[in-house]
Design a protein that fits this description.
With about 270 residues, the chain is of the alpha+beta class. The protein has helices spanning about 50-60, 70-85, 140-145, 155-160, 195-200, 205-210, 215-230, and strands spanning about 5, 10-20, 30-35, 35-45, 95-100, 100-110, 110-120, 125-130, 130-135, 170, 180-185, 190-195, 235-245, 260-265. The strands form two sheets. Strands 3, 4, 5, 6, 7, 10, 11 and 14 form an eight-stranded antiparallel β-sheet that branches. A six-stranded antiparallel β-sheet has the order 1-2-13-12-8-9.
Length: about 270
C-alpha cells in the first residue's frame, strides 16, 4: 500500500495475474502493476512482434511507477514515447502493434481520481456498490456496429469480427487514445484486462468474481483461472486495484449513478 499526496488522500492494494492461455505458445500480453500506474498491453502481430510491442509500451510507462501520482500531461507524454518505441520496431511482414488500457492515480482539485487511458479492445472496469461498469470504450469493429444499431451486445460477443480493432499503437500507425477522469471512492474495485479475459467471461460473471473474492491478487488469479477453464483461447491478463482508503469519499454515498466522470480530450 502507498499513500498519495501531502494530505494522505488515498491508499490502494493491487494484484495481477497473466497466462498464455491454452492455445498460444507465447504470452504477448505485458502489464505494469506498480503504483500509481496499472496498465495492460495486448500485443498484435505474432510472437516477436506483438510481444515486443506490448513490452515496449509498458516500458515507456515504467518511468511513472513510484511517483506520488500522475496527471494527464505525464500520461500523454508516456503514450507519445510508447508510440515512438513501437514505431521504431521492425519485424518484416508482421508489423508490431498493441492495445493499451489501464489507469493511473491522479489528484484533481485536492481529491483523488482514476485517470483511465484506452486504445484498442483491452478494457478497464470499475466495480462500485456491487455494480460493474465498463469505463473504457472498445475501439473495435463490433463496437462500432453496436453503436450504429447493426449488432446487439449479445450478437457482438460471438461475432467473428470481435477481435478486429480499429485503433492500436503501431501496426501501421499510432492511434489517438481516450482518457477519462473519474472521482475515486472508498471501496472502488478496478479491473484492467486484456480481451483474453473479457472474451471468455461475461460481465455478470466478472462482477460476481470481483464481488465475492477477497484480495486483489486472489481476484486476478481467480479471473484468469476461470478464463482458462472457459477455453483460454487467447493470452489472458488481469489487474485488480482496490481503493481501501479515500479521504474525499468518506462522506459520499458510493453509488455508480452518483459519480460524475470527465471525458478528457485524447491525442498526444
Amino acid at each position: 500500500m502507498h499513500t498519495y499526496g501531502s494530505r494522505h488522500l488515498m491508499r490502494v492494494e493491487a494484484g495481477a495475474a497473466t497466462d498464455a492461455g491454452t492455445r498460444r505458445s507465447h504470452n504477448e500480453d505485458s502489464y505494469l502493476c506498480d503504483e500509481p500506474v496499472f496498465l495492460v498491453a495486448d500485443g498484435m502481430g505474432g510472437y516477436e512482434a506483438g510481444e515486443v510491442a506490448s513490452a515496449a509500451v509498458i516500458e515507456a510507462f515504467r518511468a511513472l511507477a513510484g511517483t506520488p501520482s500522475v496527471d494527464l500531461e505525464a500520461m500523454r507524454s508516456a503514450y507519445a514515447d510508447a508510440g515512438r518505441r513501437v514505431s521504431s520496431l521492425n519485424h518484416g511482414n508482421a508489423p508490431a502493434g498493441t492495445t493499451l488500457s489501464g489507469l493511473g492515480i491522479a489528484v484533481h482539485d485536492g481529491s483523488p481520481y482514476w485517470l483511465v487511458i484506452n486504445v484498442g479492445d483491452s478494457r478497464t472496469y470499475r466495480l462500485v456498490a456491487g455494480e460493474l461498469e465498463q469505463v473504457s470504450v472498445d475501439h473495435s469493429v463490433v463496437q462500432e456496429l453496436v453503436e450504429s444499431g447493426e449488432l446487439t451486445r449479445a450478437e457482438a460477443a460471438t461475432d467473428k469480427r470481435r477481435n478486429v480493432v480499429t485503433r492500436a499503437i503501431g501496426a501501421g500507425g499510432v492511434s489517438e487514445a481516450d482518457f477519462w477522469m473519474i472521482p475515486a471512492l472508498r471501496g472502488d474495485r478496478m479491473l484492467v484486462c486484456s480481451d483474453g479475459l473479457s472474451g471468455e467471461l461475461t460481465d455478470a460473471r466478472i462482477a460476481e468474481v470481483l464481488t465475492t473474492t477477497g484480495s486483489p491478487k486472489t481476484a486476478a488469479q481467480h479471473l484468469v483461472h476461470e478464463a482458462l477453464v472457459k477455453g483460454g483461447r487467447d493470452n489472458i491478463t488481469a489487474i485488480v486495484v482496490d481503493a481501501v482508503f479515500v479521504t474525499s469519499a468518506d462522506d459520499v454515498d458510493a453509488h455508480v449513478d452518483t459519480v460524475p466522470r470527465m471525458n478528457v480530450a485524447g491525442g498526444v
